[in-house]
Amino acid sequence: MLPGSANLIGGRGVTLKNVAATGVQGMKFPDAPYGLKMACGENPKRVYGSKSQAPKTRMGNIAGYRQAFADAQEYQRQWEKYARELAAHETKKDKDDDAQPPSEPKRDLGKETLVEVLEGRILVHIHCYRADEMQLMLDLADEFGFRIAAFHHGVEAYKIADTLAARQVCGALWADWWGFKMESFDGIQENLALVDRPQGSCAIVHSDSSEGIQRLNQEAAKAMTRGVRLGFDIPPERAIRWLTAHAARALGVADRTGTLESGKMADVVIWDRDPFSVYARAQQVFVDGVLAFDRAHPRPPRSDFMLGQQGDAP
Amino acid sequence: MSAVSALLRRLACPLALLCVVTGAYAQDLLIRGAHVHTASTAGDIPGGDVLVRNGKIAAVGTGIAIPSGVQVVEAGGKPLTPGLFAGITAIGVEEVSLESGTVDEYLTLGAPAWQMQWRPEFDVTLAFNPRSVLLPVARIEGLTWAIVAPDSRNGGAILSGQGAAMTLDGRYDAVLDGSRSLFMQFGADAVNLSAGSRAAQYMLFDQAAREARSPPAAGAQAMLLPAGREVLARYLDGGRFVFDVHRAADIRQVLALAKRHSIRPVIVGASEAWLVAGELAAARVPVLLDPLENLPATFDRIGARFDNAALLAKAGVAVAFALSSDSTQNARKIRQLAGNAVAHGLPWDVALAGLTSTPADIFGVARSRGRIAVGQVADLVLWSGDPLEVTSVAEQVWTAGTPVVMRSRQTELRDRYLERLRGGED
Question: Which residues pair with B71 in a beta bridge?
Fold first, then answer.
């Protein structure tokens, strides 16, 4: 779960397991790293530009990110200085009863989050469509010394597939959505397949939609088909990584889920046929070994909202 | 020849034989040995042949003799269907959704509902640009005709205006005869256009209909201008009204409204239509729906469910498909709608009909489009496999018997960057 794309730096994201709970605490993927959402391009421009505020332009976007990370570095130095002074005080206070402890800097939660990014403990997810902007974001990461886990949407990721693979940045991409705004106008149906092609690549199929997320197997199937039509060798056992292993890698949980390997969480789906068919339906879904859905014994995981509504049964 | 250019040549000509044909205006051709899904009473013809003369289908069957001078395409048993319906779209009247200079399907009137005029004379097809890059994008996926419809938002009226079925073959004058329709937005999605209550939608319709039939006195506040009165009167006299409406109770009220005014309604959206399937069937009112709209996304869609299409078809309602969102740039997703309806109980042939013959019947173009039958315009698609399957693609499309150049701005972009990627691999 990631915040939206109105802000250059949207806030923290959290990784969940798809289980019912009355609050987020019951859904959190144990010990998964937090994410940070950032956004390129048109959305911050539009949201703030319409209020005649910065960032109105892509230049303003980049200036905004750089200033935010520069401020975070300064904040990091303040805390490092405080830590040094505190350590000095600890050694000194036994000898000098009058020694005053250093005063703790005021916490700034935004800067604190960016410091965790700089220290590699929070994974960066960037909403970014255009190839030129993704490259600028890689420059930003180099300037401040952090790593980008994934570009999301990445409609032009195919233009820089080699770079993304070389930099070990994942692309969480649509199979075929395009054209809803200028920065999505260069969409092609082979985006996933081209991003998947270089050695070490990390293509992920995503939806950003309550409709598409229900059928990522079909979205992957479409993208796989387009790659196969290009003559690429993308067998289903490779394409399935786009919605399993690679997603786990981008979220920093690949050591615990995303593949069927002994020792990993028992997150397993049993299909009635090749999942890359439009006719395929999940038969049984296990989360941490618990049967969470069983088509043969339908107990729909009905939300509180739907409980008691008329018309949800034939 | 480099591997790259060989690959690009292969992409341009997926069926080697067709490349021979492409150079000429091959409006006469014989497609041999296809699995022909006629979408007509003739059903499926395995190993079937389709003869095209002067852009129209001249014969359908097996073992058709090759007339002299006719190009022959060996289909190798692959599925052949009529050119598909693209849904209710803004293809040709919207290039990029958020670029207002390219968006023409919304008439923004800007008045509050109690003083808003209806403009049934607004005809969105006049904005149609066949040179839009969206046409080839849709066409090479097998979509050969679409409803191009107006919509309402930002202070439009619940009557959006007129749209029509249009061929996507690239011609300027693309409206298909007999397909013009008036588009209405009903239910909660349009409640901000009807003074805060959906009940007012019926009040407004009744008032407008009354004005169309007997003009108000000079000087009185009127919903319609003279041209609008003429247009609405014409539609009230046997025209086609397309109502976008979801909630079961609202669908029933639209049926009652239609009966009261003796008009022909078509229901679009229809998330809860299965709850009133019997009444829709009895009134012989067809439905266009999106089987992927399975969530209770709004209070008008509480009853949304996967098997809406199957339940309606079982009750005898004519069911066709239309994407509920992003139906313009992403029109090609309509096949996936049909496939999912099959996964949830709709018979396969009914699903194919929902992309072909059923929408042609609904929008009055069945004389020329929607079936592989003698006399129909030869809009045809040869598929790599099951046309409803997400792993199938259109291998060759014909419009009026002419092979479509299977390229679009998207394939151009693909090939430019594919070549660079391959260059890096050498």
Answer: B29
Enter the ipTM: 0.95
B379 occurs within a structural domain:
no
Encoded tokens for A46: 């539009």
Residue A235: how many other CB atoms lie within 10 Å? 9
Q: What is the DSSP string of B99-116?
A: -GGGB-SB----S-GGGP
Token pair of B361, please?
């019947």
Q: Is residue A253 a contact partner of residue A15, using CB atoms and an 8 Å limit?
A: yes
User: In sequence order, what DSSP letters do the residues of B312-323 get, joined into one string?
Assistant: HHHTT--EEE--
Provide the Cα torsion A256, A257, A259, A260; round to 10°.
80
Cis amide linkage into residue A55, ω under 30° from 0: yes
Least CB–CB distance from B329: residue in A179, A306, A310: A179
The reply to whether A52 and A164 lie within a common domain is yes
Nearest to B89 by CA among B323, B406, B304: B323
* Nearest residue in A to B275, CA atom: A311
Which of B348, B369, B390 is where one domain is finished? B369
CATH, residue B421: 2.30.40.10
Do B19 and B113 share a domain, yes or no?
A: no
Domain assignment of residue A4, yes or no: no
Q: In this structure, is residue A284 part of a structural domain?
A: yes
pLDDT value of position A311: 56
Q: Which residues of chain A have pLDDT under 50?
A: 314
Give the model's pLDDT for residue A50. 94
Residue in chain A closest to B337 (alpha carbons) equals A278
Residue A2 forms part of a structural domain: no
The whole domain housing B137 covers 84-369
Tens-digit pLDDT profile for residues A66-78 = 999 999 999 999 9
* Domain tally, chain A: 2
Question: What is the spatial distance between Cα B109 and Cα B159, in angstroms, rounded to a whole number?
Answer: 11
Same structural domain, A200 and A299: no
Same domain, B268 and B287: yes
Nearest to B413 among A188, A198, A279 (CB): A188
Give the C-alpha separation, A244 to B413, whole Å. Answer: 28
Residue of chain A with shortest Cα separation from B345: A279
Query: Domain residues for A276?
Result: 266-314
Provide mean pLDDT across the span B18-44: 79
Tell me if B376 is assigned to some domain.
no
- pLDDT value, residue A95: 81
The domain that holds A60 is classified in CATH as: 3.20.20.140
Q: Is there a single domain that holds both residue A58 and residue A30?
A: yes
Predicted model pTM: 0.94
Contact A118, A79 (CB under 8 A): no
- Measured in whole angstroms, the distance separating CA A217 from the mean position of its chain's CA atoms is 19
Which residues 40-99 of chain A have a CB within 8 Å of chain B? Answer: 42, 46
Do A152 and A146 form a contact (C-beta atoms < 8 A)?
no
Q: Do B343 and A278 touch (CB under 8 A)?
A: yes
The backbone torsions φ and ψ at residue A97, rounded to the nearest 5 degrees and listed phi first, read -65, -20
CB burial of A148-179 (b: ≥16 within 10 Å; e: otherwise) equals bbbbbbbbbbbbbbbebbebebbbbbbbbbbb
The number of distinct structural domains making up chain B is: 2
Residues A180 and A271 in one domain: no
Tokens representing B297 are 């996304």
User: Taking a C-beta distance cutoff of 8 angstroms, is the pair B113, B403 a contact?
Assistant: no
